[in-house]
User: Fold Heavy metal transport/detoxification protein from Methanocella paludicola.
Amino acid sequence: MAEKKLTIVIEGMHCNHCSQAIADGLKKLKGVKSADVIFTTGKAKVVYDPDVVKVDQMLAVVKELGYTVKGTKE
Ligand SMILES: [Cu+2]
Assistant:
């Protein structure tokens, strides 16, 4: 089983509730093993299986929740 890490740089989080909502949304995706979102740094660190879930799907979750994706880092 493959495993990759991704950092998503997010704009628009104001509090722990925001980061928690994003973490919950990401964890609902099949193939996402863990999602640590910290609003003070504006970053989400995700561990995922690239055979199951695509980066675009994870970014879509962030956008659907109303936040802006500023970039990603492998
Ligand atoms: Cu908030």
Q: What stands out?
A: Residues 14-15, 17-18 surround copper (II) ion (CB under 6 Å). The CA atoms of residues 35 and 46 lie 4 Å apart. The helical segments are 16-27, 55-64.
